Amino acid sequence: MHKTTFIILALIFAGKLFAQDIILLHTNDLHSKLNGYSPELEYTPQQTGDDMTVGGFARIAGYIQQIRTENPNDIVLAVDAGDFLMGSLFHPLEKNTGFQLRLMKEMGYDYLTLGNHEFDYGPGSLAHTINKAKEKGEIPQILLTNVEFDKKDSRDDALEALFNDGTIKHYAIENQNNVRIAFLGIIGYDAEEVQPFLPPVEITDPIKAVKKTSKDLIKNDIADLVIVLSHSGVKKEDGEWQGEDVDIAKKASPYIHAIISGHTHTKLEKPIIEKEVPIVQTGSGGKNIGKLIIQNNNETFTLKSHELIPVNDDIQAIMTIQDKIDKQNEMVQRELLSPLNIQYGDAVCETSFNMECHEEGDLHTSTLGPLLADAIQYYVTDAGYKSDMSLIAAGVVRDQLRAGKNGQQNIADLFRIVSLGEGEDNIPGYALAQVYITGKELKSVLEVLLMTQTSKPSTHCFFSGIRVEANMDGGFLKRVKNIELGNDIDGWETLDHSKKNEKLYAVTANAYMLTFLSMIKQKSFGLVNVKPKDINGEPIEDMVNQYLDFDKTQDGVQEGKEWIAFYHYVSSFPDTNGNGIPDIPEIRKKTFNPVNYIEHDK
Q1: Is 70 left (phi over 0), alpha (psi -120 to 50) or beta?
Q2: Which of 264, 334, 423, 485 is the least buried, fewest Cβ under 10 Å from its Cβ?
Q3: Closest residue by Cα to residue 258 from 242, 280, 240
Q4: Backbone angles phi and psi of 492, in degrees to 5
Q5: pTM here?
Q6: Where are the alpha helices (DSSP H) in 274-419?
Q7: Are the CB atoms for 32 and 87 separated by under 8 Å?
Q8: pLDDT tens, residue by residue, 504-519
Q9: Which parts of the chain sit beneath pLDDT 50?
Q10: Residues 6+ apart with CB under 8 A from 229
Q11: Where do the DSSP E strands lie in 454-500?
Q12: Which of the 8 DSSP states describes residue 156?
């Protein structure tokens, strides 16, 4: 044997010279999209090649299993970067079942971090969900590195207990084939800002947390490489990628080796490389699964490749996973839909065209946003309430309406679009509420919304019952030039927004959104102070008192929700093709937000 060959073989057998792939299969912002969509009625996981739907947990499980089978000698791990909950009719049951976490373990997920939407019902409810999941089976290892608990407030005690017993960890070490891979979990500042139910849990500085933890792990020889699951995100400004995850890569390099990103629902076809750290993100809703390959060459770790795999009808689903989803669907029907006399499997409307509302797209040409605002206005006025205007923000529009092959939509397709929150009745969806403000205050609200929508698209609002003319070059708090209230049937009337007009105007929206009216002063740098009032003109002490009652024949307040308003509105549309299913009118193809952006002052 040649001497060089002998030395190489000796090194290989000694474990000193080798090449091995570390394959990280990753998702983010799954939002409980357990079934493929949309329309969901076209989803056929039992066979391939016959539908146009995307996503589906059974398909994701199929791909994870496929890659593990094809790469028996490599390290294959499946991870998620947060917001795996909240977004479909399945999520309201999680508090009492913990079904999805157990399902994700069976699908093959190894590590998850928490996002802002895991906290939508508060830290105590999140802890309850996790404990319910643990009672009935295994769950993936949950991670959250940058968190602190309030020693004086008991509301986060149950979640802190899960850290104490290791159910949630600040970091975890995966040791396979003599390679120690550390996983961290991060929630970013923007995710914290949009989650009012996070307290008393406190999110600490994500950059400092990643930098300190990763440096300690590498310097103290606890880990060979560090992967960050970050619910922080990236954004493109002036043609350059920026955002919290870019900042983390800049500051924590060279101690981290990859960032699996989430929160911003960004579909990155190619990794962002910052200080030699790849940042990857798949979009949202399980439409894609990422495949990041890091090659280990004798303990030197380099990016080998990354690709996004469409989760579509080409992937063979694992039907044992789908069977469990179908079983859970029976509970959705029994506990959520049957009391509302709605059947999950029925087509509630149909459309021949797509309707969209993308925060990262052109919101001015959105047709879905105005449809939802009109739905709220229709639902409220049909219930007998006087509503001068209704509004909905782009940030609570969570999905699109897609025609698919035959255009038929079920209740899950509608709910998925406006799925956030929960009211006092434990029915999913923020309660619809009304507040009253003066004409002057209404103009101020519009001014601030127009000001913030450029830098923060999630605050872009869609209106019904109102028409606005605005000059975006009009200067600070001087953009709104004319406001009209009314509708196309009864006519329009110009609003007097001077101080002398003391009349109160009813504004309808979900209760979560209306609470932000009290933040107008902060958003306007203290120059504008809007005080939402009740119908009698008294300052509102508790927004719960402003919830609208949609059935006064019953005790208590029967709350209305955006998704129920959507359902009622489309149910009112005519059946134009005679198949017994209401059709979304063609005119909605060109129905845009009633804001006219003028080029000069009138």
Answers
A1: alpha
A2: 334
A3: 280
A4: -120, 145
A5: 0.90
A6: 319-332, 368-382, 411-417
A7: yes
A8: 999 999 998 887 776 6
A9: 1-17, 602
A10: 79, 80, 81, 82, 111, 112, 113, 143, 183, 184, 185, 186, 260, 262
A11: 461-464, 466-470, 480-487, 491-494
A12: G
